[in-house]
Write a structure and sequence with these properties.
Blueprint (H helix, E strand, L loop, with lengths): L2 H7 L5 H15 L4 E5 L2 E6 L2 E9 L4 E6 L21 E5 L7 H13 L9
Antiparallel strand pairs: 1-2, 2-3, 3-4, 4-5
Helix pairs in contact: 2-3
């Protein structure tokens, strides 16, 4: 088991269930992503480019699914939280039931379409 998977598996409930569900959705939607452990959290990459990271915020009681290059996301913008962050925006989940799979998949697919764009290769 790699450190990113250990991070997910060692979380208390409900964080573990949320993270595992999000992990399944990401890996099913984008099968070529790599799960890495950067900055002490799980991060998904396509090649050398980051897609998103997962963070269990125990203090704030949610799981953050944060997207780099969020300025280019056009779908479901109203659902993305960017408080106190300039570049990254995220979907936040406080329960497994709060996850809208369609929204997450839409955003993942949209971000993935940028993988060959010049902005993504900065």
């Amino acid at each position: 088991m790699n450190p990113a998977e250990t991070y997910i598996n060692n979380q208390p409930e409900p964080y573990r269930a949320i993270l595992m569900h999000v992990q399944t959705i990401i890996e099913h939607t984008l099968p070529e992503v790599d799960l890495k452990y950067k900055w002490s959290i799980p991060c998904y990459y396509v090649g050398k480019r980051p897609i998103c990271y997962l963070n269990a915020s125990h203090k704030n009681k949610y799981v953050d699914v944060a997207f780099w290059h969020s300025a280019y996301i056009t779908k479901h913008k109203a659902l993305l939280v960017g408080e106190n962050r300039k570049v990254v925006k995220s979907l936040r989940y406080k329960s497994l039931e709060a996850i809208n799979d369609t929204v997450l998949v839409d955003i993942l697919k949209e971000i993935y379409t940028f993988k060959d764009s010049s902005f993504y290769n900065r």
